[in-house]
Amino acid sequence: MKKRRQEHSHALLKLVGVVGICAVFALCGLGAYGITTLFYGYMGYHPNDFVKVLVHSVLNCMLFIGVGMIISFFTMPRHRGRFQPLIDALRRIAMGDFRVNLDIKLANEWGELVDGINHVAEQLNEMEKLRQEFISNVSHEIQSPLTSISGFARALHNERLSSEERHRYLEIIESESKRLSKISDNLLKLTALEGIQHDLERKRYRLDTQLRAIILACEPQWMGKEIEMDIDLEKVEIVADEDMLSQVWTNLLGNSIKFTKAGGKISVKLERVNGELLVKIIDTGIGISKENQERIFERFFKADPSRNRANSGSGLGLAIVKKIIDLHHATIAVESEVGTGTTFTITFVQTA
Predict the structure, then answer these.
(1) pLDDT digits 0-9 by tens, 92-127
(2) CATH number of the structural domain 136-194
(3) In the structure, what pLDDT confidence band is assigned to residue 208 with cuts at 50, 70 and 90?
């Protein structure tokens, strides 16, 4: 309705403009006729019809142009003053300054243009903040293992080190190198996922079989911590990207194993509920505080920065999980209590 009114107003404005131009042209014609009549009477000159028409037409055009220039002279500065802030704002945005907020009240399409410029500037400013935060986080995550590698590599030059100390330093260097490689790998995965729209390699397969295979692949990890693994998988099929969902289950199960103490319990459930497929991964781990539960899917966010190096990750695993789940038009929810455990629930709309 609003758009229709705007179109009607725009058409009416055009009509008024055309009528106004015609009226001015007609008045100039009358003026030219009056001037030529007075001139011929005063001079006592009686030219033929062709000369009269020619002189009248030329004078009419000259008057019309003159009136147009006078109108432009008085109106252009006002319009330029009105639109100059818009021009300046666009120039600032083009130069990378996104802190633009135009406080100008204009009607019709010009008002929408002002709102559009403000919206674009706001979005670009948010993107710039995210970019700077991302660069800062990447630099911090890479700097930490590099510092360790550099420090322990220098320590190896000490000839008085015992073989045990030398071996321990080499193990730390190897561990930090793997950590650095994992950060790089996850960054590449996340970047690739950001560029994916709807070109997932979907196929029909048994979801329960996939989950069982992931659990068995992680057996050395949970068996090493004597974690009790409870599996309740209903036989169901799903149409999805098998490789991507494999990454989801690996990341979620890996987190549960990592943050569940020795002797704890992890449950993996798959069931149909009201036309939906629900996957639940429940652990008795250290839990996540309420204030951190909304942020755990952010890139580089770590719920507890004080965790030791053995339990420290890149902060990208859950961001990758969230992106893959979003690409499948599914949802992921977390319920957790510090000291009790965490439950991740992934919900898919079941397709025929």
Answers:
(1) 888 888 888 887 776 666 778 888 888 888 888 887
(2) 1.10.287.130
(3) very high
DSSP letter for each residue of 183-222: HHHHHHHHHHHHT-SS---EEEEEHHHHHHHHHHHTHHHH
Residue 48 above 50 pLDDT? yes
d(CA 109, CA 5): 12
Q: Can you tell me the distance from the alpha carbon of 128 to that of 178, in angstroms, rounded to the nearest whole number?
A: 31
Domain ranges of the chain: 2-97, 136-194, 204-349
Structure tokens at 267: 């449950």
Q: How far apart are CA 142 and CA 107, in angstroms?
A: 52
Instruction: Give me the half-sphere count of Cα atoms (radius 13 Å) on the Cβ side of residue 169.
Output: 16
Measured in degrees and rounded to the nearest 5, phi and psi for residue 4 equal: -65, -40
Torsion of the alpha carbons at 248, 251, 252 and 253, rounded to the nearest 10:
120
pLDDT tens readout for residues 326-343: 989 999 999 999 989 999
- Worst-scoring range by mean pLDDT, 67-81, 108-122, 232-246? 67-81
The C-alpha atoms of residue 296 and residue 318 are separated, in whole angstroms, by 7
CATH of domain 204-349: 3.30.565.10
Tokens coding 264:
């704890």
